[in-house]
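Hey, weird one. I pasted the Beta-galactosidase sequence into the form twice and got a warning about non-standard characters only the second time. First submission, copied straight from the form history:
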Amino acid sequence: MVARARGETVIQCLSLFLVIHFLVASANFFKPFNVTYDHRALIIDGHRRMLISGGIHYPRATPEMWPDLISKSKEGGVDVIQTYVFWNGHEPIRGQYFFEGRYDIVKFVKLVGANGLYLHLRIGPYVCAEWNFGGFPVWLRDIPGIVFRTDNAPFKEEMQRFVKRIVDLMREEMLFSWQGGPIIMLQIENEYGDIEHSFGPGGKEYVKWAARMALGLRAGVPWVMCRQTDAPENIIDACNAYYCDGFKPNSQKKPMLWTEDWDGWFATWGGSLPHRPVEDLAFAVARFFERGGSFQNYYMYFGGTNFGRTAGGPFYITSYDYDAPIDEYGLLSEPKWGHLKDLHATIKLCEPALVAADSPQYIKLGSKQEAHVYRIDSHTDGLNSTWHESQSGCSAFLANIDECKAATLRFLGQSYTLPPWSVSILPDCRNAVFNTAKVTAQTSIKSVELDLSYLSNVSSLQQFMAQNEGSNMQTSWVTIKEPISVWSENNFTVEGILEHLNVTKDQSDYLWYFTRIYVSDEDIAFWEENKVRPAVTIDSIRDVFRVFINGQLAGSVIGRWDKVMQPVQFQKGYNDLVLLSQTVGLQNYGAFLEREGAGFKGQTKLTGFKDGDIDLSNLLWTYQVGLQGEYLKIYGQGNNEMVEWTDLTHDDIPSTFTWYKTYFDAPAGADPVALDLGSMGKGQAWVNGHHIGRYWTLVAPEDGCQRNCDYRGAYSSGKCTTNCGKPTQTWYHIPRSWLQESHNLLVIFEETGGNPLDISVKLRSAHVICAHVSENHYPPLQKWVRSDFIDGKISVKDMTPEMQLQCQDGHIISSIEFASYGTPQGSCQKFSRGNCHALNSLSVVAKACQGTNKCNVAISNAVFGGDPCRGIVKTLAVEARCVSSTKVGFSQY
Ligand code: GAL
């Protein structure tokens, strides 16, 4: 039975693969169509469209993850995928282009098309995006006379060359809409309006030039500039913000587009984790379409991971989860994904009316309540007595923008109650099928856990845990020290303090500065007598600075152009003085990025000497870029054998500037894999030669997180944060495709001293799912089509709401922990029965759900054997556990 099911799945997967492969290979996804626009919307193949877009940045996932991310986006009701183009990934060396692996943009765009979705390509090529150097290749700053993002010939030449290259590539691959491809829209520059004033008249010229240049490439689809109030005539200016319903484009001929709806936010090392409540996000989206918007993009729909050294700065973490509807690992974030899916389905029901009307009719319903009505027969002015005849051609949004109070509104003869800060959507101007604050989608509680499925009984589990100290690395670790300072012939010596990026060209985070300092008897006597210590004093540093005296770490400072005064202890005679400058992601936002640089700025001195300060810029320094281990690529499959590792013992822990290596087997099944580096300090990690990113267990401040996250009122990134007092990131995604079944090479470079014996490989899954649906909620919207409303086909039976529960792929519901049909209280993992409770609640839900991946339970008395409490609105609340079906399969044998 199990074998048959598996066989079927393999055949299904294979045929799906062949279909997608065929579609991708044939590269003709649509019948060629034109894209234009008017003041109301993008016009696709002659029709105005209301479009939902989802941001996915291709290099923040692996090509193996792309198909699933795209299909989950489609299932969530997304019409368009939006991505930036990452210049520094595509042109790492000037003139040498790279379009493979995670940078195979052509493959990504084709996959989007093969799934029947459109694509918005934001070429930039400045992209911001919390991406290293905002997407600029670091070599760009070395071009003589260059000034980025202004009317500067060397910059414009490079920018044009790259933008043209991308447009040409898309055209050659037949990826524009008029060629039958998915690309419906492009973007030039990115939020330039925010910094334009820094460049004076040059900024204004540059905007005009960028627009002319882009249009001159004859890509045949519209271009946008976001946050660009002076965008020229043929370029659409678009809004980026948490709310864009009040946005007005700079011309009445342009539609209202929202290129970045920030559905969460990014995190910094040592910071807490932002969350945007879905009730507020849905409110913002509904308000946008209510007030005339026509294209809305979630930034991000899937955030993913800043693999390698791609994270930008200052101090952006490796995870780019963003609290997006699809999480960093590719799993659904619920209820965000599901609630937005319901919203999208509702907006689709309204689309005919939304596109028919040139603008909505506004009706004030209260001091903080209003309605916007769209009618297919837009020539009928006002809502006169004939509206009943044409109601099917009518859609309305009712908004209660009061942050505190619910409101009961009368609209077209009917009464509607709206929670605070919410919008109800009426696809037929009568049935409020969706309210942004009423979430019926399930909640999923995810965790990252050890995979111990291969241990069949409790005693071997205990034995295993005792032996392995909580880690599931089964082999031992070996180690090797990284030399402090100069380690090779390829160093050089010059007088003076050189700028960090001028030396490293960002080939590594690390730059070593080495010199010798002579200390006399008189200096030592002076320090003792005056009870003072000498100090390394630097006007300004970023991101991390460390000083070593005679091979010993004497101090570290983290800063963003902050002053350093690090006391040090010298011996008599010659002392080795080593300064280490480290980057943690290059600056990605602001004007004049080419001048930002990294490392040290201003004066660099040794203070506190008897004869006065020593100006370090007058000394001879030997420079060494990077780590020896990086240079030898000891994290790679073959190369790691080139150095002499020694066995790691407890006595070696903790140790700074040390490499560690071990092997591990991939956990069974298909769940996403995470590396738990909570026992480590700061460094970088590689699996089978793939750089999984920087890690750092820097802890977020104790306060600043809210116990309860109230969705009501305007959101800002500090509003609903979690994780205070804990390391910002402890789990690091290892994409499945980077793993083989066994003997996976894990190499860690640790700077500050952690315990590798406690590193473990874990599985991420949603192990608890909950839902809470009432009788007075609407049935699943995906069932409806517009004609049901128009033809009045909706019957009372169809109105029965339903609870839908689903475990992630490959998991089934193993048990129902709580079920109550009646008046249950509380929220997920804290449900309790109320006064009214149907006694068979648990058995009804268990019968429908247990052992399945997905189940639906109708919210009706009939299902629960009668009405448990007449005259009271009943709710069904359920909490279920999900387990991997392969585990269940094993235990059955
Ligand atoms: C925007 C920018 C994006 C991203 C976002 C914050 O201003 O355009 O690229 O940086 O902020 O996540």
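That's the output from the first submission. The warning seems to come from a hidden character in my clipboard, not from the data itself. The CA atoms of residues 492 and 623 lie 5 Å apart.
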